[in-house]
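Can anyone check this?
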Amino acid sequence: MVESKEQLEAWGAAVARMKEQIGRVIVGQEEVVEQLLWCIFAGGHALLEGIPGLGKTMLVKTIADTVDLSFARIQFTPDLMPADITGTNVIQFGAQGETSYKFQKGPLFGHLVLADEINRATPKTQSALLEAMQEKTVTVGTETYSLPSPFFVLATQNPLEQEGTYPLPEAQLDRFLLKIHVTYPTKQELKEIVLRTTSAQTLQADKVADGELILHIQQGLKHILVAEDVLDHAVELLLSTHPDEPAAPEDVKRYVRFGAGPRGVQAMIAVAKVRAFLAGRFHVSRQDLHAAAVPALRHRLFLNFEGQAMGISPDAIIASVIRSMEQNR
């Protein structure tokens, strides 16, 4: 547990070293890096979305370089099968010709798993991740195998309007703690990217943390305090994303078909605790909740036909909910 302010500062210094090493390789994307670290120290999974070429895969690989954990990359394609991810039973032949089956682990049995271009695989294959992401186990036949700890799935995807993609099943989307939008770099960042990638020098992040430290921080941050009124605020925020809720703003009632489920408020609180920790506080504030709300809820809102036809974004809906709550305080 968090024993003292000194303990909090020591953990904060470790996270700062991770950010520093990531910054040696990745240009800009400070908000994306921040939200990925929220995910890791909250013990959740992240879905990064952005057009091709923005460095999503490189970012995940760089984060893997900063931690002393096993790393596995799965390149999702339309012909990828569930057994290619989870592993399968293979026949073993003995010295006397006898046969037996042995489970051969798939790439999912890594501490940090990069699910690259996850929406290029069929829903059947995508669903193979459901048990792993929620229960941190894999069941093959009648046997259940535990995944290593800590365990993270960091997935990348291109927007659905790109050709050759499949929408992720709603149940799988809900397993991601955060959905993170990777934005286009600025002019100055583009220049820096070109300079770094076309020079003779090869940049790589150093390892600055291990699994034991990550697990220690994860357990300690569970003791960050959440006041009753802050928890009530989080619950009210979630409920206000439901169109049948009396307190929901007009935008929600008009454009939303289904609001966020219970995992949404769990994600907000977990991420808000990490954000409070990074700010050197032992308690969660409303500002922490508001910062966590968009990445925690944007993939848990489902718009109706009118909302989709009007091009309304879930981010705008969540911002409307927050504004409405602040005005009614």
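Reply from J.R.: I decoded it. The chain has a mean pLDDT of 87.
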